């Protein structure tokens, strides 16, 4: 699979599990470099698969092994759980994963199977054993949820032939004139107290590396030394080879190493491509810890694309974010970024204000009054209906501390609610382009209507013939269950301000699965499924003052928003999960379609 490949398919195997995943995912996006193991840490060695291998435990500054006396499934469960796998498949006896080195730390293990750490089990004492390394044990852990994500069309901007030749040049090392010494601490200390290092030397060509200034290859030196964590070391050679060929195989487990290395050496394209892979895991974590960690990681490594992908996900799923355990961990900076976005999906603006109030009260006095006022100023008060504005002075927990901010913004909001836009326009304090007058994506009644396509999904398995029956069903019987389920009528005011409260517009929302359904409505669809939102009332009366920038939200399996689309000529086409346009995956395309009406003054 190629990152910069031809229209190749990129298969990613993500070994993720729901239970006990917090810490694993959380750690996943922590910088790993130079992190030393702690006493009692375990790891798996001697296998290509992350979820199995020889069990090694860290103690007294050294990695050592475990002997197979007393080794059973209960012990294996503890090891696997300590490594954040959901459980163990089997306990593997002596030598299957090769012989380890260093001390044999543990023997005669006796676990109940419920312990969280291997060291909580009963054992005879550190290094008290009569075993040899031939009896080093292993485990196979469960990695039961395979999330398989396919990605296509990573565009190619170079000649394949040249790429292959450069690859050969690197592999042969002919004429190489630049040494990269890659070193990693093993965690063990030597007798004189210095950290033991393992490393390899890669011989490369200045000519190639000089295109990346951070290698210092053009500064008249002929070698550098680089420190990476031990688990990333194997990927460093692939990284250097990539600089020749611009092609590479990436798996989820190598992606983080590659991303870190690429960011360290300023190889932007590789950083963005690997970063894009991380984005695929965002919907997996309902606790939102991963999303926050990944965002922090993206800020740390300077990956703007990854930052944007994380923020966008949180903006679209803001409501769930506010209910997640990570909510109070949100940094002020990130909250500020979120509150500035127009693609924030929330029931209404007062929901946003309440969420901000709850965040501030949870943070206690750790945020200054100035920062609080700054966050408050990002609330779009004019989007709050007059009745709710009036209640703020009684209900808002911040009102007393920030009376001026509230009063100024409420005045502005009242004006917006009761004055015609053409009148406001003449006021010197009114600035049309201010964010305060731009709607976000409000899903509260009456602005949102939803259609669940999943009923249809099960029918689709029958294949094309089903459509044929549908067709007959529709025409030759009076009941029309399928088609009705995929269309909905609803009404909204022309605009959310007081003035237009009583002028209603009727809308019709449809989800089309076939060309015939489109034709029935007299529209031409380019692909399926397609969604349509049309006004059934005449809009011409309002055309000079209000425009509608409506949105289609796709909610994956009813759990998270994975796509937000505009309508063009009342139509929106849904990207399938195989296309690159889809930032967050949705297995089997099980969408609920939300049609959101967004009026905006012009
Ligand atoms: C996970 O993927 C591997 C490799 O494709 C496959 O052999 C295995 O059967 C899958 N496991 C499950 C539970 O789907
Ligand atoms: C410690 O010992 C190692 C080899 O055992 C040697 O390479 C290293 O230079 C020594 N370090 C110091 C500070 O003496
Ligand atoms: C390149 O040189 C700079 C200073 O000249 C140094 O800080 C940096 O670590 C060097 N990079 C590498 C990879 O050795
Ligand atoms: C925050 O509040 C606590 C008590 O609620 C108080 O002890 C502390 O001094 C306050 N800190 C600041 C910075 O105001
Ligand atoms: C706004 O100003 C324009 C001229 O700049 C004027 O023609 C119009 O009547 C004013 N509208 C209102 C409502 O005052
Ligand atoms: C988000 O919130 C909705 C409504 O509260 C809930 O049904 C859904 O399961 C949540 N999604 C996740 C991923 O927790
Ligand atoms: C979407 O992904 C699923 C597997 O998760 C696959 O079965 C389905 O065919 C894909 N849909 C499209 C349109 O590629």
Describe, in plain words, how this protein is organized in 3D:
- By secondary structure, the protein is α+β, with helices and mostly antiparallel strands.
- It is 33% helix and 21% strand.
- It contains 20 helices and 23 strands.
- The strands form seven sheets. Strands 2, 3, 4, 5, 6 and 7 form a six-stranded mixed beta sheet that branches. Strands 14-22-19-20 form a four-stranded antiparallel beta sheet. The protein has a four-stranded antiparallel beta sheet with strand order 15-16-17-21.
- The longest helix has 16 residues, at 403-418.
- The radius of gyration is 29 Å and the shape is elongated.
- Residues 1-34, 144-159 and 456-481 have low confidence and may be disordered.
- One 2-acetamido-2-deoxy-beta-D-glucopyranose binds next to loops.
